[in-house]
Structures are given as C-alpha cells and as structure tokens.
Amino acid sequence: MAKKEFDCTALTPEQRDARLALGVERLLRFGRKHKLIKDLDVLVARNTLLDLLALSAPSEAKPPKENPETPAALLDEMVELAAQKGLFDGAVPQFRINFETRLMGALMPRESEVCKKFKKLYERKGAKAATDWFYDLCVVSNYIRTAQIAKNIQWTTDTPYGDLEITINLTKPEKDPKTIALERLQPKSGYPACMLCKENIGYAGRINFPARQTHRIVPITLAGQQFYLQYSPYAYFHEHCIMLHETHKPMEMDRQTLAEIFDFVSQFPHYTCGSNADLPIVGGSILSHSHFQGGRYVFPMQKASVAVPMTDIRYPGVKAGILNWPVSAVRLVGRSSQQMQIVANNILTAWRNYDDESVGVLSHTGDTPHNTVTPILHYDEKDGYILDLALRNNRTSEEYPDGIFHPHKEYHNIKKENIGLIEVMGLAILPARLKDQGAQIAEILAGQQPNTSREEGSPLAVHADWIDQLIAKYGTNLAPQDANNVVKREIGTVFSHVLENAGVFKQDKEGQAAFLRFMQSVGFKAI
C-alpha cells in the first residue's frame, strides 16, 4: 500500500466520497497525459469510474498538478478508500488487486486500437518503436507492476562461469489464510483455460485468478503460426515478454519450434527469445500452453565463453562449441537462419534418442521420453544469430525422486523448484522467504543472535545444515555488513551448484569427455 497522507478511517462518508471523486479526476488527468485516453474518451471513462466507485456525481474540485510516471500510488489510495466504503473485502489482498485493475481498465484503449497502433508503428518506424510504445502502455496502465518489481532484492555472484544474477522475488503477494480459505470455496472453472490464453484480455478475475482488464496482446505470425506478443506483469527482467500460441495446446520442441524462434528474432532483432523445454521437471513454466519468452536483456549465459570450439564440415557457415556453462549447452553462431536451424535440429534430433549410461544419460524409460532442449536465441550485428541449446533430461530415480538433473536435496533450502528457461540463462528467481531468513543467518554470523536452527519449530530449520557449514567456514564474529555479503555470496554459490545439478554432462573430466562423444555423434569435431 502507498504511504498514507491521511487516515481513511477518520473520514466521514461524505469526505471519503469527495476524496474518491477527486481521485477519479486525478486518474483521468494521468490517463490523458499518458495518452491512454483522448478528450472524448474522458466522458465515458469518468462515468465508468463513478459507477465502479458508487459515486453519484463527479468532483467539482480541480485536480492538483502532478506528474507521476505510473498511477500506482494514486490507485493504492483509491483502492483503500473503496475498501473503507465496503465495495469489496479489503482484508483479502487478491480482491484489492482485482479492484485496482478494474479501475485502471476504465482507461484502457480497446484491443483492436492497440493492435492497429502497434502494426502502424512497426511498418513506419520499425520493431523497436513498436515494442517501445507497447511496453510503455503496459507500464503506464500499471499492468506491468513496476512498484512491486522494484521491491525485489538483486545482486550478482562471481562463479567459474562468470557472474550469475540472483533475485529474491518479492513481487507476487503471498497468500494469506483468508485467501486460501476462500479459494477452497471457489467453484472449478475452465475459463480462461490458463493464464496465457488470449481469452485473458479484459477478464475480471476471481480469488484464484488475477484480473486482466489492463491486459493487451498484439498478433504476430511466426513460421506460419498465429502467436500473440504480451508482456509479463511481474517482469523478471527488462521488457520481459511472452509469445503465446493462439491455441491452448501443449509445449513442443521440434524443427517447427526452432523455426518460430528464429522468425521472432528476425522480426524483433533487439529481443532475445527462448523456450522452456517440453517435458515436466525441465520445463519451468506453463507446459500446457505453447509459448516462448524473451526480452531486451543480456543474460549471464549470453556472456559465457566457448570452452571447446567445434565444427561440422557439412555446414561451414555455422560456428559451434561447447559452452563454459554449468547447464550443458552448445552454442551455434551463423548468419544463415536456415543453416542454423538445420544444425540445431540435427542436435535436437540426435539428443532425443541419445544414451550414455556411463554418465547416467538415458533417453527413454520404455516409451517415456527424457531428453529435450532449452533453446535461447539472440541476434548480434557482428556475428549474426547466436543460439544456445541447453541439453535437458528429466529422468528420476529412487535416489533423486524430484529429478536426477534437478536441484538436489542438499540445496532445496535455497532452490527446490524446476530449473526453467530464465534460470538456465543464469538468472535465479528465489523465494521471498529468503529475505528474512538470509537476514537472520547474517545476524548469526555476526554474533547478533544465537543459532536456533536446530530448535523445534525454528523458521531456520530448513537451513540448519547450511548454517553449520557457514559457521564452520566464517565463524560468528563477522562485521554485520560482511555477514550480509557472505550470505549473498553463498546463496549465489548454491545457485551455481543447482545449475551444475541440472547439467547432464558434469563439470569433470568424465562428464566433459561424454559431452564430446555426444557432439561427435552428431557430426562435430573439436577444432
């Protein structure tokens, strides 16, 4: 909630409504200034907002001169006033978010208008101008929640693979007991089929599904298939976008998928584009709906060097190599999109059925497939297309029931979830609980509090073994700032080990020799 300049509970109903009515005018002024609405749209938007807020007439007061970059603070105030008025249950965070989105939805241009403007900008000024405008629309409409994103804790950790980026994700509100109880009472609904479906545009939301009145998408054609471009409301990186298939169909990874990724980057060369794998455990996001992710961002993986340069003499226009990266990956570089796709498909096809029992790689259990890839593509003016193919395997065992090439149990205190596309690229998305837990562990290392992790019911119990290791390594007399830095560095180191767990060919002599054997089976030779 925004900082309050007044106490809502101290207002009379008349004062509350007067302030809400003034808020409507302030919001309309913001909408005009940021070109969400035009002058004639103001009448409709005002009446819509008055209806939503149960106000009988607009404010006669003149809105103050102000120039916020986003409407977040103003919306927070209006939502608090609306909750006090009893327009929704203010004790349920999801209801607050949904009502806020509903308010802002009154100022949104229609979907057809957004698509028309995007197409016009793309044709006249190019891809970057079109995405710049679309991204700004999503920011000023508060669809992309920049205020919440700014709360994330971020740092980098130096590793043998370069700097890895660590984020403790504080953007999405955690569910409170009342929300959980209400969700249990919610009738099952298959609409929208998932949070990526195009039917989300304008959806009112419910207790277990976010409101989407401010959501807009633009159509793009990728390798003959209809997709839509949208942005992520809780962006993990700059201009975090999602390209979703028109149809609610499962993720796939084949030559067509590669063609779609290359087509996207050819149309939007300022964006990286990647895909989660198409199998459980190694696919980190919604596997039920075919989609890609991308953005205007350089990921740690893209800065990684080639450890073993290689070549396939059949394709002289494509440079290749084994990447110096914890998740086993091949890099391809070339200017010919067609030739790059052929070589990438050769690797994918070979990997689908590749076995090497000496390093625990089995492509199938019966008819169940285990091998797939996570592709990441970007374009460089100097070198052309640069494609990183991370080799994935989702096999489980009695020793590793969550996945052999998945975060191992000793690291679950930091990261237990699947390693998907974003983390394969070296950007960790870690749970919000680590904010407070990390601070408490730093206090232990600084001697500011005792180590209670072994006590029954301790919130640090999940970290007990790790804390013992840290105390053995650093003691408990660090300066407070040094202790904080140590905890961050050690969290980053754990993340590097988690990525190593996900690597099918380990970072040892045996693993790298096995990696070479696979590449040779495809037709590559070390240079």
Structural account:
The protein is 38% helix and 16% strand. The strands form 3 sheets. Strands 3-4-5-7-6-13-14-10-9-8-16 form an 11-stranded antiparallel sheet. Strands 1-2-15 form a 3-stranded mixed sheet. The chain has 527 residues and is α+β, with helices and mostly antiparallel strands.
Keywords:
alpha+beta; 11-stranded antiparallel beta sheet; 3-stranded mixed beta sheet; 16 strands
Strand elements, count: 16
Which strand-content bin applies to the residues?
15-25%
Low-confidence residue ranges: none
Strand order of the largest sheet: 3-4-5-7-6-13-14-10-9-8-16
Instruction: Briefly note the structural class of the backbone.
Output: alpha+beta
| Termini Cα gap | 58 Å
Overall pLDDT confidence: 95
Helix content: 25-40%
Number of helices: 16
Radius of gyration: 26 Å
The profile of the biggest β sheet is: 11 strands, antiparallel
General form = globular
List the helices and strands and how they pair.
Elements: H1 13-33, H2 39-52, H3 72-85, H4 93-105, H5 111-125, H6 127-140, H7 146-149, E1 153-159, E2 162-168, H8 177-185, E3 218-222, E4 225-231, E5 241-245, H9 255-267, E6 272-274, E7 291-295, H10 300-303, E8 306-311, E9 319-323, E10 329-334, H11 337-352, E11 364-365, E12 368-369, E13 371-380, E14 384-393, H12 421-424, E15 427-430, H13 433-445, H14 464-474, H15 480-502, H16 509-522, E16 525-526
Parallel strand pairs: 2-15
Antiparallel strand pairs: 1-2, 3-4, 4-5, 5-7, 6-7, 6-13, 8-9, 8-16, 9-10, 10-14, 11-12, 13-14
Helix pairs in contact: 1-2, 1-3, 3-4, 5-6, 9-11, 11-16, 13-15
